[in-house]
Design brief:
Largest sheet: none
Oligomer: single chain
CATH architecture of the largest domain: Alpha Horseshoe
CATH topology of the largest domain: Serine Threonine Protein Phosphatase 5, Tetratricopeptide repeat
Order of helices and strands: HHHHHHHHH
Distance between the termini: 51 Å
């Protein structure tokens, strides 16, 4: 994010944080989300996407008990993945995992953390840890079968995954 965008973000955030205007803060976030949705690819609106993420992080810091905070954090993680800022996505999901363990998106955050470690960062050990934690915590979740399969396939090459299917045909 450029220095001018940081200054703009600070000027936007300051009044909301100072006066506690949750609705105004959420309106800013929602307006940026509409821009991102219209673009379909967040990389076409990179500055707005970065501002969106920064606003959500600021919102989460200012209003950790606000009902929408966990959902916003999850979406900020998703946008970070779209920007190929994988470490940032994991850090945001870790914030959700740590501070909102009872929220419905806790499970998905654990799963997608493992998925990003696996498919984007190629960190097999951290992926394995995240998948196992997900499966231990949520054995009946709709993504548990997928997580189990991905855990079994960790470290396998594409060729190793295709080979059993060739033998069947």
């Amino acid at each position: 994010m450029s220095p001018s965008n940081r200054l703009m973000l600070a000027l936007i955030c300051f009044p909301f944080c100072l006066w506690g205007q949750v609705d105004s803060f959420l309106n800013q976030i929602n307006e940026l989300e509409l821009v991102l949705q219209a673009a379909e690819d967040v990389n076409r609106t990179k500055e707005q996407a970065e501002t969106y993420i920064a606003l959500i992080q600021s919102f989460a810091t200012s209003y950790p008990n606000e009902e929408k905070t966990p959902e916003l954090l999850f979406r900020a993680g998703d946008v970070s993945v779209g920007l190929k800022q994988y470490e940032q996505a994991i850090a945001i999901w870790d914030q959700l995992i740590q501070h909102y363990p009872e929220h419905a998106l806790h499970a998905r955050s654990l799963f997608f953390k493992g998925f990003v470690f696996d498919t984007k960062l190629s960190d097999i050990e951290l992926a394995r840890t995240a998948y196992r934690l997900f499966l231990d915590s949520y054995p009946e979740h709709e993504l548990s079968a997928t997580a189990s399969l991905l855990l079994q396939q960790l470290g396998s090459s594409d060729q190793e995954l295709i080979e059993p299917h060739k033998k069947q045909n």
